[in-house]
């Protein structure tokens, strides 16, 4: 029993992912000097900085990308706006819709973030054959999908439906 427990503990996917996540947080892409942002806000700002270079971003995009609720996204964005990293701009066709844009303050750190991301990605890939890394990415995407709320809701609906038919 002790051997089996130890094997499970050492190969527990959630534990390994948590440890990897912790290491990545320590190597945050954001400069450490005085941003005053939480790790989640840093991730969101990085997303905004790079996505706004190619398309318009709205709060619903952030909710979807980070799999967070509307209230959570709203709180994150409000603090980022208060700290001077983003601003919201009304859209002509629908005044209720607000495009999210980085401020000049945020744009100043874009290249530093990109450099850090490239360095971290290179370190992550070190000694791993390209094919294995691609498999790893695909497996992580599937794990994320497996744990997503939408998938859980669909499974729960399916389970209830089966119970009702008996």
UniProtKB/TrEMBL annotation:
This is Winged helix-turn-helix transcriptional regulator. The keyword Transcription applies. Keywords: DNA-binding, Transcription, Transcription regulation. InterPro entries: HTH_MarR-typ (IPR000835), WH-like_DNA-bd_sf (IPR036388), WH_DNA-bd_sf (IPR036390). SUPFAM superfamilies: Winged helix' DNA-binding domain. SMART domains: HTH_MARR (SM00347). Residues 10-149 form the HTH marR-type domain. It comes from the Bacteria. Coiled coil: none annotated. The keyword Zinc-finger does not apply. It comes from Sellimonas caecigallum.
């Amino acid at each position: 029993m002790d051997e089996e427990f130890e094997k499970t503990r050492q190969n527990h996917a959630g534990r390994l992912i948590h440890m990897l996540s912790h290491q990545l947080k320590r190597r945050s892409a954001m400069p450490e000097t005085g941003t005053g942002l939480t790790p989640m806000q840093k991730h969101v700002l990085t997303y905004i900085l790079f996505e706004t270079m190619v398309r318009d971003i709205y709060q619903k995009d952030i909710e979807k990308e980070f799999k967070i609720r509307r209230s959570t996204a709203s709180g994150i964005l409000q603090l980022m706006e208060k700290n001077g990293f983003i601003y919201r701009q009304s859209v002509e066709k629908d005044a209720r819709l607000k495009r999210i844009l980085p401020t000049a303050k945020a744009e100043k750190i874009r290249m530093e973030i990109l450099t850090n991301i490239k360095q971290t990605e290179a370190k992550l890939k070190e000694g791993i054959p390209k094919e294995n890394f691609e498999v790893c990415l695909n497996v992580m995407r599937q794990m994320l999908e497996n744990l997503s709320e939408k998938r859980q809701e669909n499974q729960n609906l399916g389970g209830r439906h089966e119970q009702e038919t008996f």
